[in-house]
Write a structure and sequence with these properties.
The chain is about 25% helix and about 25% strand. By secondary structure, the chain is of the alpha/beta class. It has two domains: about 170 residues, Quinone Oxidoreductase, Chain A, domain 1 (Alpha-Beta Complex); about 150 residues, NAD(P)-binding Rossmann-like Domain (Rossmann fold, 3-Layer(aba) Sandwich). The structure holds NADPH dihydro-nicotinamide-adenine-dinucleotide phosphate (NDP). The site of NADPH dihydro-nicotinamide-adenine-dinucleotide phosphate has 30 residues, from α2, α3 and α10.
């Protein structure tokens, strides 16, 4: 009997939050097979689907860094996937790859849309999508090329307990900086200071956050990592040191309302008075240097200098449209993934053996 395949297609452009069962249609078809492959393609089954805040921004019909997902189109996304069949010289059957295979169970993927997973011993396969993958590389390039923290400088990271922020703070510590993480719960703050080595962690939802933030930054902020935008960015601007660097990575507090005009950012004149450099970037700007980042991040993880955190939602591909709300409600610590299919623990490429 033909294998069945569940796939999410964009049904409508949401206003506000993604609505499970409404924003996407979950469609069942026959799965593609090896006989569908052309030269340079592989057939994969997804194992872990990456859920990313940017996915919400791809649902708007607005000018962005990638075209919007079209109505009726398969939802875009990156995964760790297992190769079921291959007509590509880049991958063998049974190997795991990082693939842009989308919100589906089985897919045909072309040479340009996947990369073999190369990680040192001491890492786990999910690192290829998290701390040594796209979000880890975002942290690596944003810090090494834009933030450039020096030993003794103060680095403040917003969204600090998430996939990107948790790596940013740890790399800043490796560089000898004093690191302050901002996160949305006391439990997340504990993870930052007790597990990940942050010097200070502040709960931005605490009623005393404004005073706590001023107290924690007596020498002002040399590097601010912006994952969230909004009033936290405004507060950080008010504490910017002379010649500080603001690494503009994301603005998740706005992602559910991008169709509305931005309310604006207060305290922007500080950029002039303190000669602040604010610079945005997209990780794909650094595509040519991915091997450098993956190698360094993998090495740090293997040496125990970089700890990778992840939140894995089980239940198969069908839970993806519910699971993504974690990103906007603070439900995840570290990288948010959906387990599309339990990985074969007996396989030599399995998570624990890598
Ligand atoms: P995270 O793992 O950090 O998850 C998102 C987190 O954001 C949530 O857990 C939540 O944590 C926090 N959050 C949600 N809403 C708000 C809000 N209104 N105010 C403050 N915090 C909020 O996701 P990623 O690491 O994947 O992404 C983090 C940021 O980096 C995003 O803005 C994303 O778009 C950006 N990014 C940019 C890239 C680039 O190339 N420029 C590449 C990858 C990511 P909490 O409990 O602390 O509220």
């Amino acid at each position: 009997m033909a294998r069945k395949n569940l796939t999410f297609h964009l049904a409508e452009r949401p206003k506000g939050n993604i609505v499970p069962g409404k924003t996407f249609n979950l469609v069942e078809t026959d799965a593609p097979t090896a006989s569908d492959l052309k030269d340079g393609q592989i057939l994969v089954e997804n194992i872990y689907l990456s859920l990313d805040p940017a996915m919400r921004t791809w649902l708007y019909d607005i000018r962005s860094y990638v075209p919007p997902v079209a109505i009726g189109e398969k939802m875009r996304g990156g995964s760790i996937a297992r190769v079921l069949a291959t007509k590509s010289a880049k991958a063998k059957e049974g190997e795991y790859v990082y693939a842009g295979s989308g919100w589906t169970e089985v897919a045909v993927v072309g040479d340009a849309e996947f990369e073999p997973i190369v990680l040192p011993k001491g890492t786990q396969i999910t690192d290829a999508i998290g701390a040594a993958g796209m979000t880890g590389m975002t942290a690596y390039f944003g810090l090494t090329d834009i933030g450039k923290p020096k030993a003794g400088e103060t680095v403040v990271v917003s969204g600090a307990a998430g996939a990107t922020g948790s790596v940013v703070g740890q790399i800043a510590k490796i560089n000898g900086a004093r690191v302050i993480g901002l996160a949305g719960s006391d439990d997340k703050c504990k993870v930052l200071t007790e597990e990940l080595g942050f010097d200070v962690a502040l709960n931005y939802k605490s009623p005393t956050f404004a005073e706590d933030f001023v107290k924690a930054t007596p020498d002002y902020i040399d590097v601010y990592w912006d994952n969230v935008g909004g009033d936290i960015l405004e507060k950080a601007l008010a504490r910017a040191a002379t010649k500080s660097r603001f690494v503009m990575c994301g603005s998740i507090s706005r992602y559910n309302g991008l169709e509305k005009e931005s309310p604006g950012i207060r305290n922007l004149f500080v950029v002039v008075t303190q000669r602040v450099r604010m610079e945005g970037f997209i990780v794909t700007d650094f595509r040519d240097r991915y091997p450098e980042a993956k190698k360094q991040l993998g090495q740090w993880i293997a040496e125990g200098k970089l700890k990778s955190k992840e939140t894995i939602v089980k239940g198969g591909i069908k839970v993806a449209d519910v699971a993504i709300s974690n990103l906007f409600e603070g439900g995840n610590t570290g990288k948010l993934l959906v387990e599309v299919k339990p990985i074969d623990q007996g396989n030599e490429n399995s998570r624990s053996l890598l």
